[in-house]
Amino acid sequence: MTHALLVIDVQNDFCPGGALAVPGGDEIVAPINAMMGDFDAVILTQDWHPADHSSFASRHDNKNPFDTKDMHYGPQILWPDHCVQGTEGANFHPDLNTHADLVIRKGFRKGIDSYSAFFENDQTTPTGLEGYLRTRGIDKLTLVGLATDFCVHFSAIDAARLGFDVTVRMDACRAIDLDGSLAAAETAMRDAGVTLS
Ligand code: VGL
Ligand code: ZN
User: Fold this and answer.
1) What mean pLDDT is predicted for residues 115-139?
2) Span 27-66, pLDDT tens digits
3) Please, what is the angle between helix 181-191 and helix 153-161, to 10°?
């Protein structure tokens, strides 16, 4: 098997002090760096929004961060402005080893969010990552990063549905955990055939 490490969104805005800080988000940087050498390929994802992205609560009247809004593709949680293209918050954590084979950006279309590294939130628009993995012969994925219950969760489920052998290293992930979203994500990942370790 050809085994890739998929490092999800280890960016300043998801770390303590950032705009959408995930508790303990920076604690996973050293363990992730330490595991990179164990894989045939290392791929980083980067949440990469235009300043007027429709997932930002600030773009909607009478909405606050963490409210939900019905979009054309379904319900969307509204977030504080985060990971704006070209800003310090969108940069990878300064200690993350970025000597990766591929960096894939997502969430760059104003009108649609993308939690998954494979499909945007309409669950049909591909990012191109599947083709990259298949043409490189990668069939096994280990996921780590931020946040367990959003981008890691949706990426893991999509990868399993696409037929990859998927493991999430929970010790190298951290969660936002809104209203039980971490427990729900764990159940959904297990039901999709993802190994949680
Ligand atoms: C993420 C919320 C908004 C994530 C990205 O990386 O999990 N969560 N954008
Ligand atoms: Zn985002």
Assistant:
1) 98
2) 999 999 999 999 999 999 999 999 999 999 999 999 999 9
3) 10
Q: Quote the pTM value.
A: 0.98
| Confidence at residue 98, expressed as pLDDT on a 0 to 100 scale | 98
Question: Is 157 close to ligand 1, i.e. is its CB under 6 Å away?
Answer: no
Is 69 an annotated catalytic residue?
no
Report d(CA 23, CA 36) in Å as an integer: 23
192 CA to centre of own chain: 17
Cβ atoms 153, 143 nearer than 8 A: no
What are the structure tokens assigned to 123, written together? 């669950």
Whether 47 contacts 20, CB under 8 Å: no
| Helix, strand or coil, per DSSP, at residue 117 | coil
Dihedral through CA 31, CA 33, CA 36, CA 42, nearest 10?
Answer: 120
Vertex 156 angle, CA 139 and 99, to 5°: 65
Mutation pick for ligand 1 pocket among 11, 12, 20, 189 (CB with most ligand atoms within 8 Å):
20
Q: Quickly count: other Cβ atoms within 10 Å of residue 180's Cβ.
A: 9
